[in-house]
Amino acid sequence: MEMKEKKSKSKKPWGGRFKKDTDRRVESFTSSLAYDRRLYPYDLAGSVVHARMLARQGIISPAEAEEICRGLQAIGEEIESGSFRFDESDEDIHMAIEKALTARIGKAGEKLHTGRSRNDQVALDVRLYLREQTEALLKLVGDLKKRLVETAKKEIEIVMPGYTHLQKAQPVLLAHYLLAFWEMFDRDEERFRDCRKRIDVMPLGSAALAGTSLSLDREYAAELLQFPRISRNSMDAVSDRDFIAEFIFAASLLMTHMSRFCEDLIIWSSQEFGYVEISDAFTTGSSIMPQKKNPDVAELIRGKTGRVYGHLIAILTILKGLPMTYNRDLQEDKEPLFDTVDTVTAAVAILTEMITRIVYLRPRMEAEAELGFTTATDLAEYLVEKGVPFREAHSIVGRIVAYCLDAGKELAMITFEELKKFHAVFADDVLPRLKAARSVNMKKTFGGTSPERVAERIREIEQGE
Q1: Integer Cα distance of 87 and 194 in angstroms
Q2: Which DSSP state fits 3?
Q3: Rounded Cα–Cα distance for residues 329 and 334 (Å)
Q4: Residue whose C-alpha is closest to residue 68's, from 42, 82, 80, 50
Q5: CA–CA distance from 148 to each of 161, 170, 309, 460 (Å)?
Q6: What is the DSSP letter of 413?
Q7: Over the chain, what is the mean pLDDT?
Q8: What is the per-residue pLDDT for 15?
Q9: Which domains does the chain have, with CATH numbers?
Q10: Are 208 and 115 in contact (CB under 8 A)?
Q11: Which end of the chain has fewer CB within 10 Å, C or N?
């Protein structure tokens, strides 16, 4: 059945060559105004600078530029107050502001878009937005790192089991564990700082794709907008969204690290582990089981990680098959970006607060550190110090562990006399090596878990080394 065409009464700024109005269904389908309106402060800022640059170059008069700037300021105040009326037929925030400006000041408003395309305009807006959001996120990550160091310093005496394959492996300091995540978040911070360099490139003046024959002063605009660099190829400038993909990738890794930390908190807060107590303020209950205390905040951070991964796949898929230069597909870059920013920002902020309310249950941690043959490697290294080849030492200790399992005892319970049955080099200095605290104290290699090395690393971090 043939659909009847519905027409829009709205006049498009680009409608000169069109004989029919846009179908309202097309307006609804193609509109990005519902989500890109959050770009309005950056659109206004870019437009003010563009107007001043046009006046400086003699393309519009100083009086027209002032009229434009005053009009844009008034529009910004209306949007901020909630009194600005958005119309879906305006397509996007750029056209909504331009239409409102022209309605307010007349012909001068029609001159604002001189030498500019929505292609370089939106690229500018998104860069301004993401530059600001990256700075805010960097501060949050810095706060998260600070909390981890504070906790590590406070809990530096706690010994706990370290795990591989979720099986007890060797004793470590809780502080060493916390600083492992500090290192992860430090790399995240470094990635965002590096990403910011590639965000901080001004595309304005590239126009649709080829630049413009008008005498724009891109250097002046870049100076006003505080961009240290200007795009060098107009075709690349309007089609480049690498910086968005890079930001979402960096955000994905940050979410990965937060998710891993939360996974441990979820496991550790269970009755089976009992290593931590998460504050009631960051947990919830069950609608049917009165006894439940669920680590929902940690679980949601873990769950939202997959959401950000999805946004990374979305932006890469959008970009992978685009012919040069701008294509309307690029409109779909904003929702993944905006939701990534919102999600990762909220996750970092709440995890930082949650960390300060966690109680680490030292007696339980230290008791468990003595179990599960966690000092078996120390016993093998003792034999190595006595001249036994490591592979032979490994085999000997393996047999000792098997013996303990058959006897129903932990390694720390074995006697000197029993050890002597496995090798003649065992002496009475071996038994202290089977204690978790002694094991930790001896891990003095650079980057190791000994209190001496961990305290040294905390000092380095605090001194900014």
Answers
A1: 38
A2: P
A3: 11
A4: 50
A5: 19, 22, 25, 14
A6: G
A7: 95
A8: 64
A9: 23-110 (1.10.275.10), 125-155+165-197+240-360 (1.20.200.10), 367-462 (1.10.40.30)
A10: no
A11: N
Q: Which helix (H) or strand (E) holds 419?
A: helix 416-420
Question: Length of the chain in residues, anyone?
Answer: 465
- 415 CA to centre of own chain: 51
Nearest 5°: the CA angle 258, 263, 269 is 125
Facing residues of 170 across strands? 162
Those residues whose C-beta lies under 8 Å from the C-beta of residue 432, and which sit 6 or more positions away, are 438
Question: Which tokens go with 346?
Answer: 């909220």
Residues marked as catalytic: 165, 286
Taking residue 248's Cβ as centre, other Cβ atoms within 10 Å add up to 26
The token duo for 278 is: 């998460």
Burial letters for 1-19: b for 16+ Cβ neighbours within 10 Å, e otherwise?
eeeeeeebebebeeeeeee
Provide the greatest CA pair distance for the chain.
Answer: 100
Closest CA to 352 of 137, 178, 148, 190: 148
**325 prior amide bond cis, ω within 30:** yes
Our measurement of the distance from residue 19's CA atom to the centroid of its chain's CA atoms, rounded to an integer in Å, reads 47
Q: Is the pLDDT reported for residue 455 higher than 70?
A: yes
Q: What is the pLDDT of residue 12?
A: 67
Tokens for 16, please give them: 């000169």
Distance CA 263, CA 268 (A): 9
Q: Sort 247 into a burial class: Cβ within 10 Å, 0-12 / 13-18 / 19+.
A: buried
* pTM recorded for the entire structure: 0.93
User: Residue 229 forms beta bridges with which residues?
Assistant: 201
For residue 211, the Cα-to-chain-centroid distance in whole angstroms is 34
pLDDT digit string, tens, across residues 15-74: 667 777 778 888 888 899 999 999 999 999 999 999 999 999 999 999 999 999 999 999
Helices and strands in the chain: count of H runs, count of E runs? 19, 6
Pairwise CA distance, residues 239 & 349, whole Å: 33
Alpha-carbon gap, residue 192 to 188, rounded angstroms: 6
Task: Read off the tokens for 90.
Answer: 């305006």
Structure tokens at 200: 């901080």
Reading the block at residue 450, the tokens are 């000994």
Please report, as a single letter, which amino acid is at residue 206: S
Task: Classify residue 38 by its DSSP letter.
Answer: G
Residue 72 near residue 48, CB atoms below 8 Å: yes
Q: Which residues pair with 432 in a beta bridge?
A: none
439 CB-contact burial (10 Å; exposed 0-12 / middle 13-18 / buried 19+) = buried
- Bridge-based pairing state of the strands 201-202 and 229-230: parallel
> How many Å apart are CA 264 and CA 256, to the nearest integer?
13
